[in-house]
UniProtKB/TrEMBL annotation:
<dbReference type="InterPro" id="IPR009003">
    <property type="entry name" value="Peptidase_S1_PA"/>
</dbReference>
<keyword id="KW-0732">Signal</keyword>
<feature type="signal peptide">
    <location>
        <begin position="1"/>
        <end position="26"/>
    </location>
</feature>
<dbReference type="InterPro" id="IPR043504">
    <property type="entry name" value="Peptidase_S1_PA_chymotrypsin"/>
</dbReference>
<protein>
    <submittedName>
        <fullName>Trypsin-like peptidase domain-containing protein</fullName>
    </submittedName>
</protein>
Length: 264
């Protein structure tokens, strides 16, 4: 019997809770908000478990924030400079190809120096893989937005080299309510596409609702973006299970047209 893979534009939030934050542990649940992939918790960064505090997060991963746009909440990050935010295209554009800003203001929320800042974010239809991401292949689901004013006091992420299968990565999330979390996981496959755009990344990172647009970051004290999380595909979306060809999270590489959009 052939099983159909179902796509969900969601990301899992967490395997490791930071000191000072309320733990947000992954657990199997039912429905579209299910945890679908159990990632490899390699703890491959320079920061050992149990010793990751707020200052360490701000130093390495402080460029990660939350995007609220037209009723959608997702993840974004400062990239390249203090007024550019990268995320998934479906975080900024709806099923009809319209900017979510038409349904409510877009804001980027980030912790800076112990305070939370909320800054207007403008989607830019000339800097995205597609304004109709729901009807496109996943590697088109990336976008760059511009902030009304730059964020200072935070080091933006740089773009890294294209990832390779087997490479360890880090997926970071932040929200004012939940605090800061990180998932250490692994690139399993990089899929070439024929249109010359970014490639699709398949990973064993945790998959759960609400955090599309989070960066796939290199490990270590100077993280670089190698991709953007889009969602997950699963033949059994209500169950937690290891990575397989029918059960995985995926995103797009931060190269080619993506890289040009950030540099423009």
């Amino acid at each position: 019997m052939t099983r159909r893979l179902t796509w969900y534009g969601t990301l899992g939030y967490t395997l490791l809770a930071f000191a000072g934050a309320t733990p947000a542990l992954s657990s199997p649940v039912t429905g579209p908000d299910a945890t679908v992939v159990v990632g490899r918790d390699t703890r491959s960064s320079a920061l050992p478990p149990g010793e990751v505090g707020k200052s360490a997060f701000a130093g390495s991963w402080g460029a990660t924030g939350t995007i609220e746009c037209g009723g959608m909440r997702s993840t974004g990050q400062l990239t390249g400079r203090g007024d550019l935010v990268t995320t998934a295209a479906h975080a900024l554009y709806d099923e009809n190809g319209q900017s979510r800003a038409a349904s409510g203001a877009c804001r980027f929320i980030i912790a800076v120096g112990g305070t939370t800042r909320s800054i207007d974010l403008e989607p830019d239809p000339t800097r995205c893989g597609s304004t109709r991401p729901y009807g496109m292949a996943g590697h088109h689901d990336w976008a760059v937005g511009r902030l009304a004013e730059p964020v200072t006091g935070i080091r933006p992420y740089r773009l890294g080299m294209p990832p390779s299968p087997g490479q360890g990565i880090v997926v970071v999330s932040y929200s004012p309510e939940r605090g800061r979390t990180v998932d250490h996981c692994q690139v399993r496959e990089v899929v070439e596409k024929s249109d010359g755009g970014p490639r699709e990344i398949r990973t064993d990172c945790t998959g759960r609702g609400g955090l599309s647009g989070a960066a796939y970051l290199t490990t270590g004290p100077d993280p670089a973006i190698v991709g953007i999380h889009v969602g997950y595909r699963s033949a059994t979306p209500g169950s937690a299970a290891p990575y397989s060809s029918s059960h995985y999270t995926f995103g797009t590489t931060a190269e080619r047209r993506f890289k040009a959009a950030v540099a423009d």
